[in-house]
Amino acid sequence: MDMKIYENLRKMGEQWLIAVFLLFSLFEAILAALSILGLPGAISVNRVLLFSIPALIGGAALYLIIWNKKHHDRIPAWIRNINTLPGIRRIAIFSLWLGAFIFWAAAFLPVSDLGRWGAIYVRFQPILLLAFLLFVQMLTVWLFFTSDGHFDRQSSNDRQAFIAGIILAVFFTVVIVIIYFTGWGIGIGTQYWGKVGVPILHWQIGLSLVIMLLGTYLAGKIRRQFIQNWQFDLIVFVVLWAGAFLVWQAIPTDISRFTTRIYPPNYVSYPYSDAGDYVLSAESILLGNGFQFGFIDKSVHLTFLAMLRLMAGADFGKMILLQVALLAVIPGLIYLITSRISNRPSGVLAGLVVLFMQSNSLSAINRIQVSNVKMMMSEPLTGLILMLVCLAVVSWWRKPGANWGYPALAGALLGLAGLVRLNALVIAPFIGGIWLISFGLRKRQTWIALLIFTVFCILPLVPWMARNQIKLGDPLAFITSKTSGVIMKNRFKPVMNDQMEGAGEKGISGLIQPMIHTGMHNLVAVSLVLPASWTHNGLDNTIRQPYWDLEWDGKFTPGGQVIFGLSLLLVAAGFSASWRKKRVIPLVLLMILFAYLLSNTYSLVSGGRYIVPVDWVLPVFYCIGLTEIASKLLKISANRFLVGTENTQIERSGNWYSPKTLVIIVLLAACLPAGLSLFMPKKFAQAIPNADLKVLQTAFTASNAPFTFADIENFAKTDGAEVLRGRAMFPRWMQSGIGDTEGPGTAFSALPFDHLSFSMLSHLDDPFNVVLPINEQVDFLPNASDVIVVGCKGEAFFDAAAVFVLSSENILYTRPDINQLACPFPQP
After folding, report:
1. What pLDDT score does 293 carry?
2. Whether the Cβ atoms of residue 380 and residue 620 lie closer than 8 Å to each other
């Protein structure tokens, strides 16, 4: 936009803005009156009184339209005269903002949440909506005529920021048009087609915005000489971490696809499905069994869980609490990222919004398909490391060539993220390509930095590759096990078989359309974390929106398309604003987002937990856009959050926080999985130690068991019999007919008898489930207890006759209905 266009728009506003808004007010009053007349029921006195309000407003608007035609300069003059009186000006602007906020909050309440007041609210809602629109129009007129009319010539020359925002907005528009005409991204998807992302609620954005604005005001009052920028960043980081930890840990853990109900004896919600397998694998590492359950592509994640287990002990509840405490740094990292590509107010707003997103994930985990900080899943950890990658790349690109430690740190972190989830490695060529294009293809230092980034991206993989060569004879087994064993076998072949049976494309070419369909759904799912409804719905009503259906047909609630469009427009505005401040650097976030979603697309997975590592990117730009608009409208400078947005902390090569030191820490962390796999001694052997057998014999002598230790010795010599020593994981005692999340007839299902069930790790290659029929409630069996089990192998589970807990109590549990040990045991 050049000076001439700006001046023409300014003149048009001076002449026509009030007239247009008065005309809008007349139509809005007519619509409100018609809405009141259209309410069900007979016309009553109350209805007439309600009708009189928009009628009077419409009449006043009509009068002012006629009056303003003759005196079009009077209202602007009054506004400018009031603006010269400081006391009245403050009252006027405060009243307009407060009125707009109050009526915005009141006009869009969810009727279903109001109970018996809902019928009354429906009658008043047209009046509230009319009042909201009137206050918005009056506020717009006030801001227009009280502005100085100065046009910043320097910003007008900065066309790149405007073009960058337009390109992103056009991209969103093109995707929406393609989805609208083709149906790609909505409707029925693949087997791994999850729901949309975790929502951000209106009140959470509003509260975060209020906190940010209040902080901006208070920061302006601080005597800045007493605190440096890096100290301020540290304070905000710690406050966000503490707030996240306190809020997240206070939300109860509900049952879900990856968490179980609570049962005696420990009354803890244990992990299930993939999460349960990860924890069993981590425990197996500590037992010296290595990475034996097929998750060699997630070596760092399993090692992370093993370290949590060492720090928390056998109490699984403490293990969850410790993980929450570690992952609670995520809002603080979001603050640091956002403040470095925009400003501190945007960072505070984004950190708070992401904090609320995780709270929503925890609160609705039984109804949405994501993983959160209280699960043992790999997605939150991947997201955390990708945030660290983002910070490292931003630091690298802000001062290219100034410190070679940053490209090394960025590469090392990205390689480490690849050992949590392989998807992260797809990001590397995108970052490298944008770096070359943006910072000079012909510059020697550009290629040196790229080489450093690439080498250090590969280095974290080398120890794990060496381990795979030693153990499996294939250094790339952690990659091929995923690509060939999971993607090809479980994803591509089923789709290709479906294509062969139908009339579609045959073979590999038949994967193109499903991939496009999945890719579009990834974009839909990650975008719909943003507001897409007029109504201030709570969490329960939000996740009942039409787009939360797995077979969503593209429809919204009335007006939802407008809000969704405004949300995407704010994202584009935030990207434009950050580009204006940092040029190409904000592209780092988009490259992380789109590259990760591209890897999901190739894997034919979308939505749900698969977008969790990158679902924070669009909210970051959304918050930047919202902050920019708020600061413009409220005339608050972002610099009131201390002068400048740069981190003034001095980096010294000897400090532990220098990039070179951090690179060493990252590389050591990458070596840990291989070290544990190769050098951790095995705890359990095939033969049970004599000392344990003597303790078991003593326990049988002192008990009222229906069989003796001698019976067990004879039983162990028969076919199908087993006497094993191992570690009991996730113990639950369940009554007859009560089961957990597994299928019928399995160890944790609703069996027709009271039983104790747990998973067991031993000297064997794989874990197995144990069931001990026992009528009395089991009161003592801590998680991760060492036990000796006696029983028969079965197809569904190990059918136990006795479970002996190796502890100071030496508790023995026996099946009460067996007098003679012989496999198979009769059903209770």
Report:
1. 66
2. no
Question: Which backbone phi and psi does 133 adopt, to 5 degrees?
Answer: -65, -40
CB contact at 8 A, 167 and 55: no
For residue 265, whether the previous peptide bond is cis, meaning omega lies within 30 degrees of 0, is yes
3-state percent breakdown (helix, strand, coil) of the chain, nearest 5: 65, 5, 30
| DSSP letters for 135-187 | HHHHHHHHHHHHS-----HHHHH-HHHHHHHHHHHHHHHHHHHHHHHH-TTSS
The pLDDT value recorded for residue 647 is 42
Backbone phi and psi for residue 728, each to the nearest 5 degrees, phi listed first: -90, 125
DSSP 254: P
**CA 434 – CA 402 distance, rounded (Å):** 19
Report the C-alpha gap between 26 and 62 in whole angstroms: 6
- Check: CB of residue 219 under 8 Å from CB of residue 347: no
Q: Which residues pair with 722 in a beta bridge?
A: 791
C-alpha angle 434/388/335, rounded to 5°? 100
- In terms of Cβ atoms closer than 10 Å to its own Cβ (0-12, 13-18, 19+), residue 717 is exposed
**Predicted confidence (pLDDT) per residue in 746-759, tens digit:** 889 889 999 999 99
**pLDDT given for residue 827 in this prediction:** 85
SS3 792: strand
Is it the case that residue 646 has pLDDT exceeding 70? Answer: no
pLDDT at 90: 81
Are 185 and 517 spatial neighbours (Cβ–Cβ below 8 Å)? yes
Please give the model's pTM, rounded to 2 decimal places.
Answer: 0.91
